[in-house]
Amino acid sequence: MSTASTEPLHKIVSQEEWLAARKHLLADEKQYTRDGDALAAKRRALPWVKVEKNYAFDTPSGKKTLAELFAGRSQLLVYHLMFAPDWEAACLGCSFVSDHFDGALQHLANRDVTLVAVSRAPLAKFTPFKQRMGWRFKWYSSFGTDFNRDFHVTFTQDEMAAGKMLYNYKVQSYPMEEGHGLSAFCKDAADNIFHTYSTYGRGVEPFINAYNLLDLAPKGRDEQDQKPMPMAGSATTINTTATTSPACRPTLPLLQRKHLAAQPTIAAPQNTNVFVSARSTATPNRRRTRLLVFACSVVCKTSARKLGASSPTTLIRRLQRISS
User: Fold this and answer.
1) Which helix (H) or strand (E) holds 172?
2) Is the dihedral of CA 127, 129, 132, 138 positive or negative?
3) HSE of 189 in the Cβ direction (CA atoms, 13 Å)?
4) What is the DSSP secondary-structure string of 174-206?
5) How crowded is residue 272: how many other Cβ atoms within 10 Å of its Cβ?
6) DSSP-derived 3-state class of residue 72
7) What is the mean pLDDT of the chain?
8) Between 293 and 171, where is the model more confident?
9) Which end of the chain lies in a sparser environment, N or C, as judged by fewer CB atoms within 10 Å?
């Protein structure tokens, strides 16, 4: 006789009871939407600050000013993508966010908005990583400029030692020298540039449409043992020995945190959004490959098929067998 529990995983009701509960939730959802509209209006009503400093960015076509990053449009969104000069790969959480950019580029452009990413690492440092990830959005370097410091996404060693970094509008301890966020700018007909808005921490979460879809799924984000974004939790539990930012890492439980210690990287299959790391033992014949499937594979079956798996779940199980 089976001893498995026959209790349902969730409360089960009649169709009539479900419909009543759904209508009650619908009222809350509509209020949430209206509250979001009101908040967006307040965001747009914020006063602006004129940008007086002349920033120069390294791009594949040479130096460009902040004004040139607008690409002929009047609005600019800059994602502060965490990639320090001595890192070998971008922050995994930032990569998860960035995986959602390309599909929006044309739609933003049609609304007079240019979206770019900016990192402090030199251009030559992150260009191979961009190619490996298959990203098309523009990604520029602020190396040697004050841009990251001025927008509070880079911290000094002294600030880190003292645990006093200005991030997300307050002085706090932060586990890395780089932080993530987004800054918005507007340019008038006279080419005057204004800083209109910046957001950090979970403020970038609206970019992650995978989260929006998971919020509709029965199990949601399935992150019971994690915060929705690590910035919402304590930095004291974060492993700070890794080469990529640990602050943005644990976005989904399928991201195996125990495998995130500093490791050399190997090239992933071209045009697949899969972060691949490897660690070799002293014996080449007993080399054990540890693969980290990037978070988008959870919701993107295409990435799984490119690696020969019928579904993300199949891919995860296959990789777990390899790494065991």
Assistant:
1) strand 170-172
2) negative
3) 0
4) -SSSB--EEEEEEE-TT--EEEEEEEEGGGGGG
5) 22
6) coil
7) 77
8) 171
9) N
Q: Provide the residue type at 302 as one letter.
A: T
- The residue ranges of DSSP E strands in 14-168, in sequence order, are 49-50, 56-59, 62-65, 75-80, 113-119, 138-141, 165-167
Q: So what's the pLDDT on residue 222?
A: 83
221 pLDDT band, cuts 50/70/90, is confident
Instruction: Report the CATH number of the 49-207 domain.
Output: 3.40.30.10
Burial 220-243 (b: 16+ CB within 10 A, else e): ebebeebebbbbeeebeebeeebb
The pairs formed by 6-15 with CB atoms below 8 angstroms and a separation of 24 or more are 10/218
Q: What pLDDT does 118 receive?
A: 98
Cα 204 to Cα 62, 100, 116, 286, 324: the distances in Å are: 29, 11, 14, 42, 34
C-alpha of 78 from chain center: 13
* Of 151, 241, 243, nearest in space to 198 by CA: 151
Cα 137 to Cα 103: distance, rounded to the nearest angstrom:
9
Nearest of 91, 96, 90 to residue 300 by alpha carbon:
96
Six-digit token string for 228: 């929705």
Average pLDDT over residues 212-230: 78
* Cβ atoms within 10 Å of 193's Cβ, excluding its own: 22
pLDDT level of residue 4 (50, 70, 90 thresholds): low
Q: Which tokens go with 73?
A: 């449009």
pLDDT (tens digit, 9 = 90+) per residue, 72-108? 999 999 999 999 999 999 999 999 999 999 999 999 9
Give 258's pLDDT tier (boundaries 50, 70, 90): very low
